[in-house]
Design a protein that fits this description.
By secondary structure, the protein is α/β, with parallel strands linked by helices. It has helices spanning 37-43, 55-65, 82-85, 91-105, 118-122, 127-137, 158-167, 190-202, 236-244, 257-271, 276-301, 315-324, 344-349, 362-372, 381-389, 397-402, 411-435; strands at 4-5, 20-24, 47-53, 75-79, 111-116, 143-148, 181-185, 208-211, 226-230, 248-249, 305-308, 329-335, 355-359, 376-379, 393-396. Helix content is 44%, strand content 16%.
Length: 436
């Protein structure tokens, strides 16, 4: 059943058969795109992410990464001082100096990302021009790219979309000698990616590449022989650019949970004309094991009400998993941005009358949370403590991005992340009752 798509004024409500898509605008509560640096810098050891921003930007990334002050991470901040913001200093000249010092100290850097922030965008700092000039100045040694990690109009996972979009123009074009390849797009934990590649090889798909690669200087080729399988649902712009390069986007649900991962791999198998019997031979034992591993968590989660507030863009695939595989009731599924084309497969798997809300008016959404009194709310860190104070269990959205949750083998780990806060609060309630 195709979903109903409705653009509403923020005070309107409707009830329609099928999945109901609403659009809401107002005050938001999300992390900014700079946060994505925390997992991107671990992925590509030869890359460096230089945020052009304020001390607040530096504190945010340092806190999110949990890196000790004596560590040598692959990210940093070129701090804009008051004189830069006031136009009393040449910020471009200062940035050139910072980059020169950085590359002298870190000669292993092969790709340098200049990451825009709210302050740099407010003063109209042209990082694109700076990146071009620096690439020319350090030609042959380092490639300098730029993208926006500003939180003015984006949520935190869109930082990865910006970084990968900056890499796409550098991907070499396929030639006549290239074989058909499967390109997995989206950052995954290395162990998870290795496992998925092994499974694809068992299916007969031997030429499997990744974006981002483990070395930023070793980008895979791209062209009509490439079939793209998206591992993350927040890479809209990257997918569009890859399609413009001639690649084919394989339509599939995302690899969260047993069902989503199975459909994801079967879609790849169909795209490469893999025999159905071979698909069943490889996947059926994994599915049986995954379903069995989910059983104890399904017992804890089944029948519980869940409300997903918008933050990571993982909300719709997670809602599908929590309902279909864990038996949870979906009260509302919020998402910061909805690409209907990318989410078509996921939306079809949601139950009828699911309320899907694109955008956010945080005050009104919190009012609906209190009215519905769900058993669990998936939300950002800034909203978790106030909700916990009202005895509503929460799960941080950002934890789901940092955790290895993709694939059939990780389905039980994913379910445990949602069962844990419910179990914790149950233990606390029992402890309080025994004291009283």
């Amino acid at each position: 059943m195709s979903p109903n798509v409705t653009n509403l004024n923020k005070d309107q409500k409707i009830n329609m058969s099928g999945t109901t898509l609403l659009k809401e605008s107002g005050p938001r509560e999300v992390f900014c795109g700079l946060t994505s640096i925390v997992w991107l810098h671990r992925r590509m050891p030869d890359a460096f992410f230089l945020v052009v921003g304020s001390r607040t930007c530096a504190h945010l990334i340092q806190s999110a990464a949990g890196v000790m002050i004596f560590a040598e991470p692959r990210f940093g901040t070129a701090i804009l001082e008051e004189k830069d913001l006031a136009g009393l200093a040449d910020a471009h000249e200062e940035l050139n100096r910072v980059v020169k010092d950085l590359l002298n100290r870190r000669p292993e850097i092969r790709t340098l990302f200049l990451v825009g922030s709210c302050p740099s965008e407010v003063i109209k700092l042209d990082l694109s021009r700076v990146a071009q000039q620096l690439t020319h100045a350090y030609k042959g040694r380092v490639q300098v790219l730029n993208y926006s990690g500003s939180g003015i109009e984006t949520t935190f996972t869109q930082g990865e979309d910006g970084a990968l979009s900056a890499l796409v123009p550098l991907m070499p074009e396929e030639n006549s000698n290239n074989q058909e390849q499967l390109l997995i797009v989206g950052t995954l934990a290395n162990a998870v990616e290795d496992r998925l590649k092994t499974l694809f090889q068992r299916l007969g798909i031997s030429n499997v590449a990744s974006l981002p690669p483990r070395k930023s200087s070793e980008l895979p080729s791209i062209g009509p022989k490439t079939k793209v399988l998206l591992a993350q649902p927040y890479l809209s712009n990257t997918a569009r650019l890859l399609k413009d390069k001639g690649a084919e986007i394989v339509e599939a649900p995302f690899p969260l949970g047993v069902e989503g991962s199975e459909l994801w791999m079967r879609a790849a198998g169909k795209a490469f004309n893999i025999n159905e019997s071979l698909l069943n031979k490889v996947l059926d034992p994994l599915i049986a094991r995954g379903v069995k591993a989910l059983e104890p968590y399904k017992e804890k989660l089944s029948g519980k009400k869940v409300f997903l507030l918008p933050e990571s863009q993982l909300e719709i695939p997670l809602a599908r998993f929590l309902h279909r595989e864990c038996g949870m009731q979906l009260i509302e599924v919020g998402t910061p941005y909805l690409n209907r084309e990318m989410m078509e497969c996921e939306l079809k798997l949601l139950p009828e009358n699911t309320r899907v809300v694109e955008g956010q008016h945080v005050e009104k959404q919190l009012d609906r949370v209190k009215e519905e009194n769900p058993d669990l709310v998936v939300c950002g860190m800034g909203l978790a403590n106030p909700l916990e104070a009202e005895n509503i269990s929460t799960k941080w959205s950002i934890e789901l991005v940092f955790s290895p949750i993709h694939g059939i083998d990780q389905a039980s780990d994913l379910a445990e992340l949602f069962a844990r806060p419910l179990q914790r609060n149950e233990l606390l309630d029992n402890k309080i009752s025994s004291i009283n």
